[in-house]
Amino acid sequence: MNYFASNKEAWNEVFAKHQKGYKPNPIHEQLKHHFSYIDNNLKQALELIGYKNKNIAQFCCNNSREILSIVNSGAKSGVGFDISENFINEGNTFSLTTTTGTIWFSWFNYLPILN
Fold first, then answer.
1. DSSP state letter for 26
2. Which residues 6+ apart lie within 8 Å of 29 measured at CB?
3. Separation of alpha carbons 104 and 17, rounded Å
4. Quick check: pTM over 0.85?
5. What is the mean pLDDT of residues 91-110?
6. pLDDT confidence of residue 15
7. Residues pairing with 57 in the sheet
8. Strands 77-82 and 102-107
């Protein structure tokens, strides 16, 4: 069994199901108006480590709503990693119109599992 290929296929399938529920895309609209997807617990933890004006990374970033929210609230830049090219492409689309900082996304197998 190719774990990586099976996991990637599953996440790409989930992406298609997410798209059916976006009419119009509420995440994109909310991010454009700087709505934050950071809950209070995460916000407090980020403030404890002093995230403002720092470079932040997020693994398993999905469609990027959290990392975009972090950048919009004061991080210097952000990078998101995910297994699904579909989610990464959506994150790149969101970032074009929703962020005030520098952000980029990468798709790759960051946790190889040996058979």
1. H
2. none
3. 24
4. no
5. 71
6. 82
7. 79
8. parallel
Q: Which two tokens stand for residue 83?
A: 């297994």
Instruction: Collect all residues with Cβ–Cβ distance below 8 Å to 65 and sequence separation of at least 6.
Output: 27, 31, 37, 94
For 111: left if phi > 0, alpha if psi spans -120 to 50, otherwise beta; the answer is beta
Is residue 112 over pLDDT 80?
no
Q: Write down the H helix ranges in the chain.
A: 3-20, 26-32, 40-49, 65-72, 85-98
Residue 35: partners with Cβ closer than 8 Å, 6 or more residues away: 69
Q: Is the pLDDT of residue 51 over 90?
A: yes
71 is written with which tokens?
């950048």
Within 8 A by CB and 6+ apart from 114, the residues are none
